[in-house]
Queue: 3 jobs
Job 1
Amino acid sequence: MAEEKKKSADPAVLQLLAKCESCEGLPTTMWDRYDAMQPQCRFGELGVCCTLCFQGPCRINPTGKEPVRGICGATDYTIVSRNLLRRIAAGTAAHSDHGRHIAHTLHALIEGETDAYSIKSEDKLKAVAKKVGITAEGKDTMQLAKEVVDLALEDFARQDENVPLTWLKTILTPERMEILERCDVVPYNIDAMVTETMHRTTMGVDADPVPLIFNGVKCAMADLAGEAISTDLSDILFGVPKMVVTQTNLGVLKEDQINLAMHGHNPVLSEVIADMADEMVDEAKAVGATGINLVGVCCTGNELLSRRGIPLATNFASQEAVLMTGAVDAMIVDYQCVMPSLGMWAQCYHTQLISTSNLCRQAGDVHIEFNPKTAKEDAKRIIGLAIEAYKNRKETDIEIPDYRETIVVGFSLEQIEEILRTQSDDPYQYIVDQLKEGKIKGFAAMAGCNNLKTCQDESHLTLAREFLKNDIMVLATGCAAGALVRGGFTSSKATQEMASEGLKEFLTTLGKGMGLEDALPPVWHMGSCVDNSRIQFFMTTLANKMGVDIKDLPIVASAPEDMSEKATAIGTWLVASGWPVHVGIFPFIHGSPLVVQVAELTARDVYGGFFIFETDPNEAARRLSNIIKHRRWKLGIDADEEIVYPTGETAADFFEETEPQKANTANGGK
């Protein structure tokens, strides 16, 4: 009998899954539902089924045997390309809509329609205004904010196709913008890109994979702009993240307090709940609790973690486990990555499941629609429901795993620049010098979700561990960051135990520069999934300092457990920006060799970035480390190093190819 696959790298999650298995009458878990789906549809995994019209579903045989065309005549490359584009459009819609909601909240503040918010970072407001070409001189705070938010909203509504998105121009090198313009993939209007992509992929419209894929790139660049808007405006409204010491994992729940778990991706309501919780402690004590304990889940959790130090309970795959503890009095959800199963788990306990967006409703939820005008009242009502629910707790239901990690988070660009200025008045030149000296070999951006096709978090932890051994600094966002904080990678202890000597020296020097007794952590938590824009801006600034394009930098990106359509959009704009991007779960494109070839090879020729599809995290780490070596060699930094090739292989790999590599090659892996 085959050995059972390990479900999670987090012992707190395994503890609660064991609890679930020993109890009758509880709902199924995500892992149970995954097992029930086996074997999964092979046509679906290859991306060769089409449901765009009602004549199907059509399933194409990628081996060349009949049927090779759908009822309308669509081939494998048409179906796979269309499906891919629709995922990019959905991801772009999600990220950009997030940015739009932040813009509307800031607009409500400017118009005097809400007293729940304030501009917490005037410095960031001035910096963003300068970045987008708005003069701050002679303007008060609200006037300047209005001009910034109006320009942001214009990126959603511009009708002049010859004017690029403002926020896109701020986050790319001049050389990169030139490449994108040459390829005609510079968007002018975020909403128009989503609409055009959906139109183009409608039955009976575009069937040519080349313009289809280029349209997908154009839509993904709109996603990047939407993320950048969200990050900038959130920093203005809620404050720029600063380094903070806090805790993570399910042990942050407290048995003697009212526990509120805030889940989703949009911080506009959770920020107000955090403010109002301080005002309602006496009401919590009146029902026997010692206080109110706020914890985060997924990217709303990452936002609160970065700005306020509010503990992060867990990431995507184990959101049900938060409710399994029996200690959560209310789970407040906004939107994105919220499992429809939460309703049935909440009903097993005393927990109130409270939805706050009309975009994201749950069967059996209590719906309190968020409105900036009534944000304080809404927040108090939500906290009041949690206090009432606390009265119905059953001690026999409660099991809080005793797992907690002490972590250091809050690495915004502004915080990173402050850290680097302790060593040099020119922070980016300091990074360049460290790269040339080899203290840092390069940077790895780690993002993405969880996917039950692998052990939860294990691929994230494996890749990060290998990067740190090779002097590669890790910058993390989203659920990847959630995995790494719970795995113990964001502490000075991790630097001592995991980082190689050069990286350890670099981080120790920076720690001392900040007046700390210990080194900085080797993984820098940079925020939620929209905050990938922070990483992009960091690398763009570094590339400009070095006088090169992003495609020349010793950098790589990895989504080891990709799951969401948002990850597809992110991966696409990273590739188009010049990043080598590893994906650890095969996307639904391998039914078309042509599309795979474009992703892995043609993209490199056009953009300098490319995809690497590799399920083995150790092999992925090896290839990504070699790519960084190759880029260093091309920059002339390590001229005496062994030559490695852009796809991540050394010369020896071409003469001594292993069996797994042969299999990967057969799937279009090289």
Note: Confidence is low (pLDDT under 50) at residues 654-670.
Job 2
Amino acid sequence: MGKINVLSQETIDKIAAGEVVERPASVAKELIENSIDAGATAISVEIKGGGIEYLRITDNGVGIEKDQIPVAFLRHSTSKIKDAEDLNNVHSLGFRGEALSSISAVSKVELITKTKDNLLGASYIIEGAKEISLSDVGAPDGTTFIIRQLFYNTPARKKFLKAESTEGSYVFDVVEHLALSHPEISFKLIINGKEKLMTSGNGSLSDTIYQIYGRQIAANILDISYEDELFSITGYIGLSIIARGNRAFEHFFVNDRYIKSNNLSRACEEGYYGFLMGHQYPFFVLNINTIDGAVDVNVHPTKQEVRFENEPKVCEILTKVINSRLRRREDVVEAKVEEEKPKFNNTFNTIVSTPVRNSSSIESSTSVEKTTALDTSSDELIADYKSETSSEEIKPVKLPEPFEKNRLEAIKASITSQIRKDTPYERKFAEKNTGGEKYEQISFLTREAVKEHKIIGQVFDTYWIIEYDKNMYIIDQHAAHEKVLFEKTMARLKNKEMTSQMVSPPVIISLSQQDILLYERYHEAFESLGYRVESFGGNELAITAVPGNLFSLDPKQFFLEALADCQSYKASDSFDIIVERVASMSCKAAVKGNNRLSIPEVKTLINDLLELENPYHCPHGRPTMISFSEYELAKKFKRIV
């Protein structure tokens, strides 16, 4: 063994920095969380060069006393906790006391801060963990951190950073998550001199979602609320129309802290079972608040992972709450026609604007911009105008805080006056043209509505067209029948009314040893559906009975497909989930496309849909029906200009 050395403080700081400071986004996260803990109601973030060369965080929080500043940069110095017992009751975002020490060890830091009780503020400069100066300076209340040349003294770390645009997108994600978890705080993000995100800080999560993601997302979300003696769940979940091909729009917060959890993600996705197609992932912003001691946040250096005292219980409730909320909402997909948006004149250049993220990339050249006032009648028209105008043409004038209400009303009146209402169709639909009021409860599938249905006919021997309440509905007969069969099967299972049809002679199936083990693991699910299977020696099974309602299907093929589907099941899946997924295979017996049905058969199908909790999606998540409004058709035929 070589000689044991005691490392210098400088080396210790650089090693510790590796645990906390991974990239500019890590620095932004730690400093913004400190601003939140300091009681800030407005936080501004500015980066240049992806945050590697320049990162500034400004807040209006309580500030730091001058004599406390050097202490704040020492390792494990914190105002959030006093001893180990406090770790069971952490309510602040930061508490370890490592952030400032770690950041200053690998960058050049300038701190400007002032408390409200002091006449002057203080300026503190520290580079590579070495103090440069501490002096008085004039400053507003609050704190500003300026971080320059991140990893300037650790080039090995710096070379592993990604492109500036990529690092900037990571900072964007951090600001986005913190804005969603704290809608009561106004956030602003400036990247290379351009404002990319701003939230109002009015305390409304739905407004914050609107300001970050725009109109299309905000118009298709449902509120979630659940509470028991251990924890509560609040937030919003998205309808199927705004699902994505990855998990980028899944946001979890535990006690207002952004976290990543595969178990929670899977639990939420289970709640969407039957509402989304395969390989689609939902949009949701959910905050789980727990009682003291029910969650351990001291698990990971970045605090993005937590450990629940009873995680299976949390996951189970998440699944049930989401599924229940989705079933309470009519979810007919409304088709929209593409059209050229109207132009407005440059009198709108004086409107206060906030760029809103339009996709997962902050580099999109077609990002939508919206006003900070959240009235849809003006917001959407302004957004339409700005989406058609180059960024060079838009030079918005910022209104002082609080916003001038009278001026905003005048702006909205000016916008409204410029909408053309020359033709009868324009007058007829002027009030409907809001663009964001979709998915209202239109009650297409009710006993009263069915009496008013006007069945137009069938096209392509697959789709049925029905007129009702100024809307044209198109029903996919196969998807609709799939859902009817599935729901009926599940109802029979629940009421233990499943029947079996004997097969003579028995159907013999040869399986691999893995398939044999798979069947032995899930045989109860098959038996609950009505299957009766016996060992036939070796790797062969004999099917002696099949589900009574599936007798028309090939028993061997159906059994093999259902068994193959079992390979995707997880060990944590409950018996009910497994049975439900096996039962979803009942859709194989549904009427297919390219089969002509009669009017009475379609009426029977619609009446069957009336009895379902969720008639709007087949068991695989595909829509069973879509609709075109009269207004959308009028636009397509240029009756509305």
Note: Residues 164-181 form the longest helix (18 residues).
Job 3
Amino acid sequence: MSALQIENINSLADGLSGYLAGQQINLVRRAYFYAEQAHEGQFRRTGDPYITHPLQVAGILSKMHMDHQSLMAAMLHDVIEDTGITKTAIKSQFGNTVAEMVDGVSKLSQISFGSHAEAQAENFQKMALAMSRDLRVIMVKLADRLHNMRTIKVLPPDKRRRIARETLDIYAPIANRLGMNDMRIEFEDLAFDAMYPLRFRRIAAAVRKVRGNRKEIVSQIQTSLEACLEREGLPGRTIGREKHLYSIYDKMRSKRKSFSEIMDVYAFRIVVDRVDTCYRVLGAIHSLYKPVPGRFKDYIAIPKANGYQSLHTTLFGMHGLPIEIQIRTEEMEAMANNGIAAHWLYKSSEDIPSNAHIRAREWVNGLLEMQQSAGNSMEFIENVKIDLFPDEIYVFTPKGEIFELPSGSTPVDFAYAIHTDVGSTCVACRISRRLAPLSEPLQSGQTVEIITAPGHKPNPAWLSFVVTARARTSIRHFLKSQKLSESIALGRRLLTKALASFGVSLDSVSREAISSTLEQLRLDSLNKLFGEIGLGNRMSHTVAQRLISLNENAIGTELGGNLLVRGAQSSVMNYARCCNPIPGDRITGFISSERGLVIHTRDCNNISDLRNDPEKCVEVNWDPEVHGEFTVEVRVELEHQRGIIATLATAITGAEANVEKISTVERDAHFSIVNLLINVRNRVHLARVMRKIRMIKAVTRVTRVKSRKTRRPTVH
């Protein structure tokens, strides 16, 4: 160990002596020596011994006054991943808590992934589970990422950009979500420099130049604000607030503003002793300069989701210059800069968690709920990104309870925020006592009432407008479950039908034959087999043959008859768009991979080659009680007349049918062809509609379009 390294650990230990006990500092030292030995001979790309990285990570955490176990985990956080030491070894040396934290931060290096994005998603999912058990895991991970970003310039440009993008997409928003503003700003500026070094340097140079020109005006405004507070006898300190480089760049890009427009705004922070002083200061500065209407926000009464509290106002200053003011207490200032870290940095008792700590715990529990509902790690991380929106709105229940939601949220998002069951069964809403669509974006201050109906199910169309991760995950989870149950039911019917064609019933197939079939197909249950058949991934005819060949006790039966089609489309049964079958048509079923059973008319050209293939086609009939509306295409040839399309639409609706789509093609100067997609109940209803159309004088011919040729029968 070099003299410099000994000096570094001693320097860290001296800093820890201000808030940790001697025995705890010795444990941190022991973790350092253990990590130093484990990383012996390893070097970073900078050329420094590898141990300098864990030491710097621990140093970042020590400035937040993190506890000794967090610092030990920081020292050891790369040991599992980069050396031969196991989690069990760390547990025996430093205890289960430290071992769990180290394991939570470690990457999944033992598993191979299809892509880097998938690996990162899996890593974050694993870390989220560890966070749900111990919030300190995310603190160690953020400090680890911060030191890596500080030394990122030694990496190749492509890797530098990829890590910087990930930092902007995931780690900076997490720091923001946890209220750690100082860390968020450093993340953003370091990532900005790594991704766009030329833009970074140009904006930095422009800011330095402008700062020199602004000194006098900033000094004048600050003097006038301080004089105002002194006149009113209000204690407080005034600080000029600089915009950081990434926020300037982001506003220039997203709001399409010039650099001068952004820098023309002068920002100050006034920090006072108590909450009531905040409001008195607000009144005093509003009497000094006129406030800009609509630009006042009270985050003290209604804190942000990450616990941030402050009063925000914008004023017309001297010479009409806009001045942005933030007013907060010393405690709020510490919370704004350090967020959840303030729980350790400023805590007075181990047993009383801060508001930021409680909110962070709620957020992590929400992550855990999303992780359980998400289909895979990529879907989970997509939902996490959605959940990291920085802007919130605040809406109320009819009883006055406040809910925080991302900007752009709808009543469906609000319903899911209350409870998953409320979201799943919502049918309508009232926004500030008026009936409103479920897709209407909510505004801060509105009162939202959700109307539910027992037995109602989520609508797939909701996915097109919901913005919260919780709503999106819950809807997707339901749709997957629904598709699974429908595919199982269809698969059972298809297999029963296939077995019946061999004179065998499903009940007569022995358990041994079923078990052997499931084992051969690598499926763990009969329902899984039904689901595979229903989705079209396995052919019922082939499975039936396999079962019969294995069935020693098969009993012959007279079971027969076709599958009955009962009505509306579902996730595993669809009507082919090439021929648009309707009740009354002779039909057949085509097994399509992933789409399940697709119903065609028997004379459809697209399945003519497959009609006699028992593995692809099954015989189906309409259920006598079939109901619902079915799409059919009608071709109308008619003479040009003023208002003829309106006349045509009126005739169709008069026959109790709905027009779905109209397209017109001019045949020549006097005649046109109109193609109509209309919804009818059956062939009898269609005949009545076509008679109504024929009665229009301008109409010369009406025909039903029976079949459109497609390239492949699997595309419908």
Note: Residues 498 and 541 are 5 Å apart (CA to CA).
